[in-house]
Every structure is written in structure tokens, then in C-alpha cells.
Amino acid sequence: NGTIAYIREFDWDSKIQGYVLSSFFYGYLITQVAGGWLSAKFGGKYIFGTGIAVTGALTIISPFVAKQSVYLLIAVRALDGLFEGMTYPSVYMIWAEWVPPLERSRIASMAFSGCYIGTLVTIPLSALLAEKLGWEYIFYVTGGIALLWFLLWCIIVKDSPTKDRYISNSELSYIQEALGEQQVCRTFSHPWKSIFTSVPVWAIIVATFGDSWGFYTLLTQLPMFMKDTLNFDLPSTGIVAAIPYLVLAITSLVT
């Protein structure tokens, strides 16, 4: 996007650029449902971790792939979206095992604010890396951080409180009592007709669609617009483009 400074080694018109930017979301869309099913079958920890690890690896190889073929890059970006799409659904399975019902809204707010904080940090960091080291290092650094995070995730995180040998007896008792006899059901029948004819469900779908449209449009187009149309330099683009995510992070915590 527009935070990336590079000598114009890629002769991509606006149509090709659109394909590159949007290809991630085609893959991302597919695994939104599949991610939930896989998490119920194999556990949220493993699906979430795998999604981040593969995404990190694909990010690292993206500069090399881009120099070979734009169409190969589009395929890699779509594959990236496939694995990234599993992460959001898998988080809910982790919460179901770990978080008492009365604390879930607070935990969700904190977790989602982390997405905005990550974007807040990454946009100006990308501008800095591109200016000082070259655009390829955006992918090397962020992909490397993802792989390092994956190692820590595998060591620290457990699928459920009973599998965590470091949890205190009091905390374990509190979680078990709060969850009661609740068990995460891994095989069940979905009332699809009732779901798709529910007015509240459609209200949530429409609201989420509108929120996601604005969020991802800003994420993919704002830096490019600021740099190419408003003629901001790289550092200014990185700082100003990050402001919406600062506001998102704050409001997600206080509302």
C-alpha cells in the first residue's frame, strides 16, 4: 500500500493493484466458517496458532514471490487470507474454555483492541522500515515477529485451564465454578432456518458488513490515497494513517 516506498520495479496498473489488495479477502472470507468448525474439532489453540504461523511464513516469502510473478503473488495473498481467516473464529473457542460468561464482553473488548493497536503500530513502522531499509523489510520484520509469537504461543497457551500446570488452584476453581457444568459441544445440529430468519442475526450481519467495509477500505486505501493523491511523505503518511486505529483502540476499551 501507500506506506511502502519502492523504486517502481513493478509495472502494475490500478486494476492489478486492486487484485493484489483484494485477493487476501477472498481467502479470508472462505475460512470464516471453516475456522469455527476446525476449532471445535481440533481446539482453538492449534487453529489460531497455525493460522498466525502460516500467515507469517507467507508474509516473509511475499517479496520474493512478487518479483517472480504478480499472479503468483495474488495466489499467495489469497492463501494468506485462508489461514488468517481461521484466527477470529478460533478465538471464540478459546474463550469458551477459559473465560467465565460475565467476563467475556470485557475480554473481547481487550482482544479486539489489540487488533487496532497492532495496526496502529504497524502502519508507521512500515513507513519507517520502507524508508530506511526498503519495502521488503516490512514483510521480513512483520512475518518474523509472527513466527516468534507462534513459538511463544505454543509454549505458554493451553487449550483449557485444566491443562495449565501453572494456574493457581483458586483461579482454576473460580473458572470451573463460573462455567459450571458447561462443556464445549463439538458435535451438534445447527438450527439454520431459525438463524437465517432471525431479525437480530441479520441486524448483526448488516452492522458487521458496514463496519468491515469502512475498516478494510481505510486499511488498504488510505495510505495510498495520502501518498499518491495528497502527496504526503512516508513518515507523515504512516503517522496520520494510524490515527483512526488509535481512536478505535480507545473506544473499543471504554464502550
TrEMBL record:
Gene3D superfamilies: MFS general substrate transporter like domains. It is a multi-pass membrane protein. Its main location: membrane. GO terms for cellular component: membrane. This is Major facilitator superfamily (MFS) profile domain-containing protein. InterPro entries: MFS, MFS_dom, MFS_Na/Anion_cotransporter, MFS_trans_sf, Sugar_transporter_CS. GO terms for molecular function: transmembrane transporter activity. Keywords: Membrane, Transmembrane, Transmembrane helix. It is found in: Membrane. GO terms for biological process: monoatomic anion transport. It comes from the Eukaryota. Coiled coil: none annotated. It holds the Pfam family MFS_1. It comes from Photinus pyralis (Common eastern firefly). The chain crosses the membrane at residues 16-39, 46-65, 107-125, 137-157, 195-216, 236-254. Residues 1-255 form the Major facilitator superfamily (MFS) profile domain.
